[in-house]
Specification:
single chain, 341 residues, alpha/beta, Isopropylmalate Dehydrogenase, twelve-stranded mixed beta sheet, two-stranded antiparallel sheet, 12 helices, 21% strand, globular
């Protein structure tokens, strides 16, 4: 039918995932861009729809081929994993963790079997999936294992600000040890390819330093001299327009100003903090979030995976106030990547 089929995980059933899934799929224009199917539990979504006062109809299916892909009807590949009588909303539990993990595993299988063109994930809770016996630090590591991927990285995006990471879910001490020429060069290559897949013809890659002022020629550390600069030089020799190491306290302002199409950050918080500063907007006067935007994308996989850039937000469950903008943005990115695949 021409539209890309997207498999969207429901996320932790005790979280805001069900609510924002329904809100996102209530956007009529979304169905003009893609064919979405939720991987989750139909009964959880039915309860969420009633609590929201939504008129959306939940259509439980056993295979993607049974989906209707019609606005007003939410197709759900029903995995029947949740016991509603014992589901504790807004709390960490092994039951919810197991369900969230199984949704992710199933959507990966669908993508590998080419039954969906791209995957989009709602948030899961790391403590919950570990309670359920699945010892992963996040979605990225689950995708890497079940797709057999060794070289991968996380990209965050908000509008035209894009960031990839040399390391993510490790301690800060270990993150410093992971700043090595080969890994930095690998991430620069992935960043360059990611921009091309998004339609940027000649990407400009800004590479952040690790230390204050990018080390001041070795005064504050030698990682820039010994590892990062040699990686940038090697990338340039391959024809990649990479610049750096650029001091971390200015590189993101430059990227927002149009100097770079993507930034290579050296560790998790170096990249996450600036993205969430611009994407997460809290209205102090109203006492609520006006916007929780941004997209998380795993690069280097044989399948497409985009995600919301926020957590399970247990404190907002069943209040009807959760914002779906991050999920809508993740869906849009998944469509763009699938169309350029």
């Amino acid at each position: 039918m021409g539209k890309k089929i997207l498999g969207i995980t429901m996320g932790d059933p005790a979280s805001i995932g069900p609510e924002i899934s329904l809100k996102a799929l209530s956007h009529r224009d979304l169905y003009e861009r893609c064919a979405p199917v939720i991987v989750g539990d139909a009964r959880v979504l039915e309860v969420a729809a009633r609590r929201m006062g939504s008129k959306l109809r939940v259509n439980a299916v056993e295979s993607v081929s049974e989906a209707l892909f019609t606005c007003g009807t939410v197709d759900v590949l029903d995995m029947k994993l949740v016991d509603l009588a014992s589901l504790a909303y807004g709390r960490v539990s092994a039951q919810a963790g197991n369900a969230a993990f199984q949704y992710v595993k199933r959507v990966i299988e669908l993508a590998l079997a080419q039954e969906v063109d791209a995957t989009v994930t709602n948030a899961l809770n790391k403590e919950a999936i570990n309670l359920a016996g699945f010892h992963y630090s996040g979605h990225t590591e689950i995708y890497a294992e079940f797709t057999g991927t060794r070289k991968y990285t996380m990209m965050l995006a908000h509008d035209d600000l894009r960031v990839v990471h040399v390391s993510t879910h490790v301690s800060l001490r270990e993150a410093c040890d992971r700043v090595r020429k080969d890994r930095v060069l690998e991430v620069i290559r992935i960043a360059d390819q990611a921009c091309k897949k998004l339609g940027v013809q000649q990407p400009r890659v800004g590479v952040a330093g690790l230390n204050p002022h990018s080390g001041e020629n070795g005064l504050f550390g030698r990682e820039e001299l010994d590892e990062i600069a040699p990686a940038v030089e090697a990338a340039n020799a391959e024809g990649i327009a990479a610049s750096g190491p650029v001091p971390p306290d200015t590189i993101f302002s430059k990227a927002r100003g149009g100097w770079y199409d993507i930034v290579v950050a050296m560790y998790h918080d170096q990249g996450h903090i600036p993205l969430k500063l611009v994407g997460f907007v809290y209205d102090k006067a109203k006492g609520k979030w006006d916007s929780v935007a941004g997209v998380n994308i795993t690069l280097g996989l044989p399948i497409i995976r985009t995600s919301v850039d926020h957590g399970t937000a247990f404190d907002q469950v069943n209040q009807g106030t959760a914002k779906e903008i991050s999920l809508v943005n993740a869906i849009d990115y998944a469509v763009r990547l699938a169309e350029n695949q």
